[in-house]
Amino acid sequence: MMAKVGIVIVNYNGEKFQNDCIESLKKMDCKDFEIIVVDSGSTDKSIEMLRKEYTDVHILEQNKNVGVAVGNNIGINFSIKLGTEYTLLLNNDVEVDDKLLSILLENANENTVTVPKIYYFNPSDKLWFAGGRMNWKKATGEHIGLGEKDFGQYDISCYIDYSPTCCMLIHNSVFNKVGKMDESTFMYFDDTDFCVRLIDNGYKIRYISSAKMWHKVSSSSGGEKSKSFVYYNTRNHFYFVDKYVNHIKNITKISIRVKYFAKLIISPVRYKNEKYIFKAYKDYKKRIKGRVDNI
Question: Residue 98: CA atoms inside 13 Å, Cβ hemisphere, count?
């Protein structure tokens, strides 16, 4: 028998893609799950549309944008309250293969978190994630296969030490030891932080190549060149380096930050969002965490 799963989806103005995500979940061959949508103060019609089309979905409305980490924690708590054995963290800007959940469940247990192969939504054979690894020289997680066309070169399932939480199946007992998402992040690096804590506490992350999903990347935050991405990704990277400095070998925090700034300054985002890079650093120095309204 398959275990019961709570599927946690954090929504923020997802009317263009959320119902497509829910529809793909409904087509999965594994049916013993509850869909939990945590709405993060949306101002569009996404919740109205959701209520109209899917009356069996649990909707937890928040009166403001609480962010990804807080939203996931609200959903995890509700999933546990429902008596589920596992929680699947899932982005709302994805569509899943009909065997995704059953394959992830077959390979998961109390000590092993499972994650799928993830493609870009368009083109659908372009890889976004085929396993991941922590690069401690840069203090960040890296996607294996990013941008490559899938020729089956990553069709071997394996243990990894990093994965985004846009699709991650977790036995609920894990949260008792590891804790939940770091709410001080608001968004970005909450997944990296969670993966490090998983590994540090003796848990395993297994990439399952036969489980598949398609991702409309960074739709909720406006894309990887948006001011939200630039600000939160930059600020939280600095906090992450401080938190896990003992994992960093043969390199200093200063060196990591110089390299990080150099990468940002020479990248295309500089010309549009340079001020948010420096605001992120200033806010980090002021120890500002969580949501920031003036960006």
Answer: 4
**pTM higher than 0.90 for the full model?**
yes
Element (H, E) at 121: none
Confidence bin at 221 (pLDDT 50/70/90) = very low
Nearest to 140 by CA among 261, 233, 251: 233
Q: What is the pLDDT of residue 138?
A: 86
Predicted pLDDT of residue 249:
67
Domains in the chain: boundaries: 5-215, 227-285
CB 238 within 8 A of CB 257: yes
Residue 275 to residue 210: CA distance in whole angstroms: 42
Q: Which residues, in sequence order, are CB contacts of 48 under 8 Å at separation 6+? A: none
Class for the domain spanning 5-215 = alpha beta
DSSP 15: T
Q: Could you give the C-alpha distances from 53 to 6, 38, 44, 49, 273, in angstroms and in order? A: 19, 17, 16, 6, 38
Dihedral pair phi/psi, residue 146, rounded to 5°: -55, 125
Burial annotation 113-136 (CB, 10 A radius, 16+ → b, else e) = bbbbbbbbbeeeebbbbbbbebeb
Are residues 153 and 240 in contact, defined by beta-carbon separation less than 8 angstroms? no
Angle (CA) 210 86 48, round 5°: 90
The DSSP bridge partners found for residue 140 are 135
